[in-house]
Amino acid sequence: MRAIRFDRFGGPEVLGLVEVPEPAAGPGQVLITVEAAGINFADTHQTDGSYLAADQLPFIPGSEVVGRTPDGRRVLAKVRGGYAERAVADEAAVFEIPDELPAAHALALLMQGVTAWHLLRGAARLTAGESVVVHSAAGGVGSVAVQLAREFGAGRVLAMASTPEKRELALKLGADAVVDYPLEEPADVILDGTGGPLFDQALDSLADFGRIVTYGSASRTGFTPLDDARMRSLNAAVVGFWLRPTLARPGAFAEPMRKMLELVSQGRLNPVAGPEYPLADAGRAHSELLARQTSGKLTLRP
After folding, report:
1. Mean pLDDT of the region 208-233
2. Hey, CA dihedral for 159, 108, 199, 222, is it positive or negative?
């Protein structure tokens, strides 16, 4: 079968289309013929070797797919090696979805949607009436977080985005306003997947007992030092979040997925479909994602 693989760490140029043996499903697993594979920003970190947990080379990226099982079910599944024509998933990580649900909409709920859910529910511990600032509000995680924050009872949802088109999208998704730092009023919760200078600016815009949740480093500027005296003076908290260990907790994956699929079916959550690429163009997809040229959920089509 055809798959995208990298044999050395690097930029998008290391992603190559290769022929590999078809994976075999073991006990408790299911083989899926891939209709579409989701692209996440974490995939670019895996590719360049900067991911928190290094993977063994050679490596086929991709953690989520929509496809068909041998018995004909259309499913959304968490996998390893999803940039391929077929992939294997644990039965517990497979969700049956209707034929009318677009693949990109379903994929937007999986890694990115579940991340947004846990950022707000678990890491930030958002309570009703609190204000929320979402960085990269038109991106995969941000576009879901804007909507879930409203669903979870946020008093005000404020968006940050890099272009007029992305700002307009954030407002359509339900953000109350598009803002820049410094904020006119301090925020209770700030979700930051960018890091670098934006993280530093966000610290100064936290309300008393506010929380900034850091879940990524899209700026690739390295680690931001934290001054304990500054944190005491701010009377605020910095919360780190990583999805992989979170998913090991009971109910951390299946419960949010079921609830988000219900919200979509009820029209209360509207995933954003982004660009779609042929499987062979995975490198171009990563390049455009890294250049901030995209919004919504990016997908690959084998």
Report:
1. 79
2. negative
